[in-house]
Design a protein that fits this description.
Structural class: mainly beta
Number of domains: 1
Strand content: 25-35%
Helix content: 10-25%
Order of helices and strands: HEEEE
Largest sheet: 4 strands, antiparallel
Shape: globular
Strand order of the largest sheet: 1-2-3-4
């Protein structure tokens, strides 16, 4: 999981959906695209009481970047 400097476009995210891993999207901070096992899902990572839980938002096929 790397940090990025600028938010990615929907077109860039579409290209990342083919590469396995957890990809930082940039806007909003903490939004990731998780690609594994042939599936893609949106993950929101945040800090709460000193812990960093991950919250699944939905699948890449069901939600656009703007909706996520």
């Amino acid at each position: 999981m790397g940090r990025i400097k600028a938010a990615l476009s929907a077109r860039s995210v579409g290209k990342l959906a083919k590469i396995e891993g957890m990809h930082a999207i940039g806007d909003p901070p903490g939004l990731y695209l998780c690609v594994k096992g042939g599936g893609c899902s949106w993950i929101l990572r945040y800090s709460l009481n000193g812990k960093r839980p991950d919250h699944g938002i939905g699948s890449y096929a069901d939600l656009t970047l703007a909706e996520a």
